[in-house]
Amino acid sequence: MDANRQLSADTDSPGVDLLGMARRHWWLVLLMVGAGLLGAGQFTGMQQKVYESATSVLVSPLGNGQDANSTSGRTKGDINLDNEAQLVTSTTVATDARELMRATQTPDELARQVRVEVPPNTTFLVITYSSGDARTAQAGSHAFAEAYLRNREESAKTEVAGRIAILQDKLNQLNASLLQINTKLANLRPTDPDRPNLESQRTTATSQINTLAGQLNQLLTTTVNARKIIRDADLPSRPVKPNRLLNLASGAMVGLLLGVGAALLRERLDQRVRRPSDLPRRVDVAVLAAVPGRVKPRLDDVFAPFGAGGRIFNRLRNEVLASIPAPNGADARVALAGQVVVVAGASRGAASTVVAANLAAAFARTGAETVLVCAHLPDSLVDTASVNRMLGVRSMPGLSDVLAGRFSLSSATQRAPRHPNLSVVTTGGTASAGGLLQSQALRDTLATLRERAAYVVVEAPSTATSADAQSLASLADAAIVAVELRRTRNTEIADAADQLRRVGTPLLGAVVLPRLAGARGAGERDAQEVTVADDMTTVLDKLPPKEPEEPMVPKRIRTAAAAATVTAPKVVPAPPSVPKRQTRTISVTRVRADTAGENGADKRR
Fold this sequence. Notes:
By secondary structure, the chain is an alpha/beta fold. Helix content is 44%, strand content 14%. The chain has helices at residues 2-11, 14-24, 26-46, 81-88, 91-101, 107-111, 134-187, 195-220, 244-269, 278-283, 308-323, 332-335, 351-364, 387-391, 399-403, 409-412, 440-452, 468-474, 490-502, 522-525, 536-541, and strands spanning 51-58, 70-71, 74-75, 114-117, 124-131, 229-231, 287-290, 339-345, 370-374, 414-415, 422-425, 455-460, 478-484, 507-513, 528-535, 583-590. It has an 8-stranded mixed β-sheet with strand order 7-14-13-8-12-9-11-10, with helices on both faces. A 4-stranded antiparallel β-sheet has the order 4-5-1-6. α3 (26-46) packs antiparallel against α9 (244-269), α5 (91-101) crosses α7 (134-187) and α7 runs antiparallel to α8 (195-220). It is rod-shaped, with a radius of gyration of 51 Å. The two termini are 38 Å apart.
């Protein structure tokens, strides 16, 4: 059992749990994704359309000796593309662009609609203008590019004119100084000692005048032209905003996240058992066996021995035998004979019936004498399967009739037609049997069954509706909880485990079944239900009378090979007693003998 517990805990990884949660609540996730798509569609319809147009401008030197080589997307030397990008959105350029566009907006409003980018390792400026109209976007991009180039050209011309003026002033000063030097030299004698100094000053002044004159000539011949548009703005054919595909994808993603969150919240609030791994993790109950959903147990089927369900209950039988240790020095087969196992459902439903019937059939397949006792009283038969349909036995007499003293245990014990080593004690038909499961008669009945059979499997009422399961567990050697997925709650399993452990009975674990389907329909079973209104006395007269129970010492029959001879005592017939006349309505089910079971054999009923 520890291995099963560890395996269940190891396989319950967060990824698998998340996928299982999404699979169980797929409708909620799908609903939220649909809502996200619908919201994205409405948001897209409400958004204003935005068109963008871009103009590429080459930033080159203006002929004044600037270096236009680019380094990491910026020019080195006097040109700085970051400054040029800021200049495009300046108030001066925006004012000129406003005049070119003949727009009514302020320059600052126009500048906010401009985006300037510098592509890496280039000397280009990409000027993009955004507008709600395609032609306005085209005109705005071209206008800002044109205004920027005009501003740059005017700035360059102003700079050149300023440099020319500076050079003219220097040349005028040097010419005046040279004139004074020449005048002094003309008045000096050739042998005057100051003459060499003045000649040296004249040479220097002449050289400076020639240099400045060359620079002035270069500036005067420079052509300033900044109008270099590489790619002019084109008319956009479709808006860049809203992006319908992006909005829908974002809406679907948001809806998916909300759906997963809602599924996680619903999973946390839902206390129903969704998978077998929930039991050891949430209620600390080991899983003895889990029937997969593909097996689909039915309310009127016993699993075939070599089918998937039969193999599962064969392993469950081995788990039960291994969980009840034999006394020291005793043979395990002999020590385990006469053991009583109680199967109780944690919630209302047919889970305990299916588990008890299949477990008893698994015990009987070993050749050991096995008895299935149905302890569901008539007043607690709600949403339960019919054992008489599953095993092909009569519904009366049963346990309640034995406990009420109407029939003997021998007459109430019936052989299952398709299971030679299996006997069945049905629930019975006594309506006023309340409290009989706490009587001494039940203890005597179980003690007698221990002597007659190797294994006794008791189908107890649900712990959620009755305290009889706790009373039956106190008389048993082991207990098993039957759990139905998507119906049984964690609190019900914890309460069932607490009830069974309080009476000191070893709780072996739980058997998990998928959500049970309904019984076969009338057309599938080819049977009809007939309601017969008759006197209860007439019905009881047709059944064998109660035989007095006398002390006898029968030899235990543990296997088919070890069957012993049972000596029956002589019975002196007593005068028949006439029971009190009652009026009772019972339900009788007639089933054709050629109805096939799960393993292909005919059901003999």
